[in-house]
Amino acid sequence: MACYSNACKAMCTKVVVALSVVIFILGALTAAYGAMQMGMIQKPTDFIEFEIDGSGFGMQILILGIIVIVTALLGCATAKFKKPWFATLFIILTFCLGLAMLIMGALAAFGGAIYDIIADTACLSNPGYDYYKAAVDSRMCTDQCKCPEPFKATWEAQDSALQESGQWERSGRDWNSMKWTSDGTEISTWKECYDAFLKNEFRADSFEQEFLNMGGEEFVAQLEESYDCAGVCKVPLFYMTKDISVGPPTEGCIQAAAEGMAANYGNTGKVALVTGVLLLIGMIGACPLCTGFEDDKMEKKKEEEAVE
Asked: Is the residue at 19 inside a domain?
């Protein structure tokens, strides 16, 4: 380590201190976010087999934040004391964290294709639509659950689009099968249709009723609201929880969720990439700081030896 000049060590000291301050701020923000998550436990629905526990997710973020803060403190200690044990630990942590950030950042920032592959794989067997068709698409805007007349024009304007997308054919419906009324018995949402008629028709042990009993309606409502989607893979004819006035859905929830994740994590991935690069720069900057400054005579002698 004696081959590094005092000027080089002085420059690296400034670099490591500056990066350590930035890393400390990022770590503190990360730890604070994790702590907040631990106090925000989302109530799960029974339909989801695993519990969405905000505290568990928050704990992981909190631990990551603490590791980043420790790394920043080691960087400051490396710059201050210039001892091999501080520098070695700082170099190891910045290398591991930096490499992990680069990998995760690249996946998040440029992983749109990965999300598409996941969505396509999940939809290979077209799960769920037969049940959805029987419970929703074949029930809404029928003689049993007539839709409000004022929204007829909205749907009529979508006739060609529904033919091109295959939603008419997939649902076994066409424009002539749509029933409308304004006599006060009209149904605006599938939930109204269910409460008025379907609740007494579905067997207690049917998939549709079990789905609803386990919180399925709330689960679907979250998806439809968050991603403006309906169904699972194939786009159905009707939303399950949205009002008929919004018109027919245009995207299935698997694909919409994949696109949403790609968009949401894209900026996060770019931040992770920048953080990873900064950490690796800090690692390189710490290499000369395993030892302290040489005195003037020693440095001059080494410079002379280097010239010879």
From this structure: yes
